[in-house]
Give the backbone structure.
Amino acid sequence: MAMAIDPANGKILWRQSYPAPFEPVQSAARHGKGAKSTPLYYDGKLYTFGISGILSCFDAASGKLEWRKEYSKDFKATWPQFGTSMSPVIGDGLLVALVGTNDDGAIVAYEAKSGDQKWIWKGDGPAYASPVITEIGGVKEVVALTQKNAVGLSLKSGELLWKIDFPGRSGMNIPTPLRFGQRLILAGDPGTMLVQVNKNGSSWTAEKVWQITELTMRFSSPVQKGNLIFGFSNRNGGIFFCVDAESGKTLWTSDPKQGDNAVIYIAGDLLFLLKNSGEWIIARATGNAFEPLRRYQVADSATYASPLMLNKAIVVKDTTTLSYLSWE
């Protein structure tokens, strides 16, 4: 189900739904049955990617369906093992998504307005990580974690520019890649690493600069402040950490047993951390130590979805409720 809500009063302005039979596997049941992909707003349109792999474009003002893609005739299944989780991205008017299922999928680009397919790359099955669009060596690229690899594709044509092995347990490549200059921070079961991407004429290479194997990341994506990379590792019952991106040195880790997952945002000198327990932590974004400043309980059940940060408010989705919380 997709809906538009007035943040001032919680009134539902429009609502759209379609049949999407889906039963999560037992190990993922605690995450809830609902969609895992974050909706995307672009140029008056709202784009959603349902848990069963249905990609839709709505008019954001009215909720009218503009176009829809479903892949039952293209692949042996329409979602990977744990359900579709990646969020689509848009660059230069092209919407990019990872579609299909384990061992049978693709990265595909559509004209965002019309839904016309512009290119498709069928080199690997989809993962759960959202792709990013960035410019490296003067070329706009789609950088994505797939089921077994990290890849860079030309945004314009879908041509494969570079690829490195990046195996996730059961294909669970989930953290979003993070650009660091002309390099990339990649994270997952192989650990946290810095990858240098180079262009020499028409050829490309991607090489690991450093890798911290003990700082594995499961669900959470890293963020950056200058040379500092902040993340949440699933090791030791869950730990926050900070790494110097230039040297690959771990600067600090938090106390263990922080939880199963945490969403990390950064704004200026502050980190905003939402743990799956519903605890909202505001901490100092520093390389000296983990320095929480405030803690709030913002949900009554588990929170795996990314919150929406507004001016003096946040919107939090737990397994049963959507809540708007404000402050002065």
